Automatic annotation (TrEMBL):
UniProt cross-references to InterPro entries, sorted A to Z: Peripla_BP_I, SBP_2_dom, TAT_signal
Lineage, broadest ranks: Bacteria, Bacillati, Actinomycetota, Actinomycetes, Kitasatosporales
Main location: other
Region annotated Disordered, chain positions: 32-54
Key words, A-Z: Signal
Domain Periplasmic binding protein intervals: 59-314
Name listed for the protein in its UniProt record: Substrate-binding domain-containing protein
Pfam assignment, any one: Peripla_BP_4
Superkingdom: Bacteria
Length: 351
């Protein structure tokens, strides 16, 4: 979902990976060759993670409570990916938004001597110490999305690009409105207390700054829920009698925003969503509402985190890269899904 802040530093130093059509299959497709191929110099390619069974790996997975469609999709992607490997056992916690509870769950996984930990912290800063504890205990950590304060608390970070979400949403809207004189844009943001929201807004503002004919005339924050999206959007519609485009940070709250828009009978603007829910993609495909695009924040990152954890536990690298080790960070690309490409991305849509 969208409720997943990743630090801008990590985003900048990350290895850029585009999302693929068939969930995280693109990442795995690059990781499935374990064959030795000799190049012209006769050097052997390093071993990479393979679909073929290898050393057994027990992966501990700890995330926050699945109280949002995106977070539920994170858990499902992790389970599904692990189930596909004969050599992986996944020990997954129930999930909690309470920091002390999540720390206790991770301590239990550490004490059970899992081989690798995948952690999506409810609060990256608050859980940094438990990441450090795991690393010092010899259990490598894959830090999923919400980043720890210290790079010493994880072996690899993988997550989305919140700044990139805003940037790509802004450029999509900018190109659609390029020839509109004095175009007005409205932003329905996420929770303002979260760093991810600030990053998305910054990216959006930086993109719009390159279009001199566009002005952002209003911005209101919601709470990533259907109810908050409907309530806040109703207020925005009353305050702004006319505008040309709306960017909504999150497709869950976007469902509520669309209700408010329908109730108000407004259709003079285009809407761009965020995260990539199935409902949003269905609406884009049907092309019967103001929603014309959504910018991905793919929950398939959890499947890729399992791929990375398995490779790490088997001391393998990533196919397609020359290195013997997995990278230290992977930043997923925020693709823009439109009617033209929605069929490609539908398999990644979450409920």
């Amino acid at each position: 979902m969208t409720d997943s802040p990743a630090g801008p530093i990590a985003s900048r130093r990350g290895l850029l990976f585009g999302t693929a059509a068939a969930s995280a299959g693109m990442f795995l497709a690059g990781c499935t060759s374990n064959e030795s191929n000799d190049d012209e110099g006769g050097e052997q390619a390093p071993a990479a993670a393979s679909d073929e069974p290898g050393r057994h790996v027990t992966i501990g997975f700890a995330g926050p409570q699945a109280d949002h469609g995106w977070l539920n999709a994170i858990n499902e992607n992790a389970r599904s990916r692990a189930d596909g490997y004969e050599d992986v056992t996944l020990e997954i916690t129930e999930g909690s938004n309470d920091t002390a509870t999540q720390i206790g769950q991770i301590e239990t996984l550490i004490n059970s001597a899992v081989d690798v930990l995948v952690i999506l912290p409810a609060d990256g800063r608050a859980l940094t110490q438990i990441g450090l504890d795991a690393m010092r205990a010899g259990i490598p950590v894959i830090n999923l999305d919400r980043i720890f304060d210290s790079p010493q608390a994880y072996r690899c970070w993988i997550g989305g690009d919140n700044y990139g979400m805003g940037l790509n949403a802004g450029h999509f809207i900018g190109e659609r409105l390029r020839d509109v004189e004095n175009a007005r844009v409205v932003e329905l943001a996420g929770t303002d207390s979260l760093e991810l929201t600030r990053q998305r807004t910054q990216g959006f503002d930086d993109a719009l700054a390159t279009y001199p004919n566009i002005e952002k005339v209003a911005r209101q924050a919601a709470e990533f829920t259907v109810e908050s999206g409907q309530e806040v959007m109703s207020g925005l519609l009353q305050a702004q009698p006319e505008f040309e485009a709306l960017w909504n940070h999150d497709d869950d709250q976007g469902a509520g925003a669309l209700r408010a828009i329908d109730q108000a009978g407004r259709d003079e603007f285009i809407m761009v969503g965020g995260a990539g829910s199935k409902a949003a993609m269905d609406a884009i495909q049907a092309d019967n509402s103001v929603l014309k695009a959504t910018v991905l924040y793919p929950p398939t990152m959890a499947a890729s985190a399992i791929d990375l954890a398995r490779a790490l536990g088997q001391a393998k690298g990533v196919g397609g890269l020359a290195e013997f080790e997995i990278p230290s960070s992977v930043t997923l690309y925020s693709a823009v899904v439109t009617k033209d490409n929605v069929e490609q991305y539908l398999p990644t849509g979450f409920n």
